[in-house]
Fold this protein.
Amino acid sequence: MSKFPSPLSQQDGFSLVEMLVAVFLLSVVSIISLSIMSNFADANQMVTAKMSDLAQIERARNFLRADLRETVERGFFVQDQKLDQNDLLFRLTRGDAENAKVDDAYSPVEMVEYRINNDKLIRRSYLRPEAIEITPFRDYVLLENVGDISLKFYDGFLWHNYWVNIQNSNTVLLPRALELSWSSHDGQDYNGASFNIRFAVGSPI
């Protein structure tokens, strides 16, 4: 009479070596997956930061273009000394003020300053065109983490690193164009990224 082995007598499941191999492979796959996810998150964060930087630059360019295009021949003043971290860049008087289009209480003529303050490019608009020290104003941050800001001026023939301010006069000589240059940094070190934008002043060149 033949005897058949009982199924219960056979070894079921995985051996210890097989389990160790499976755990090792699972660990490798997990590490690779985590690395891919981390790289994707870093890349997404970098793209988001770059898009934010581009949005800031475009916003600043739109404000500068509109202000300089509408600049009138009075009250144009340029800082003629070496710039510190808290300084006026230039001041202008513009017509066709945006606020006057929606509120009759505002003057159609507006005084605007561009300033650098704690590595920020700020647009300051005053409530009245003939502003004094106590005149209310509104600041709007256009660019952050900026440094090495410089200006150049085009007189119709040549570009200059300075512009002569005419004092005690209601009419001033405007440059034909203005160039704004700056470098960006991450809050501590400059990363070498530099930018420059040119704008027509008063009327297109």
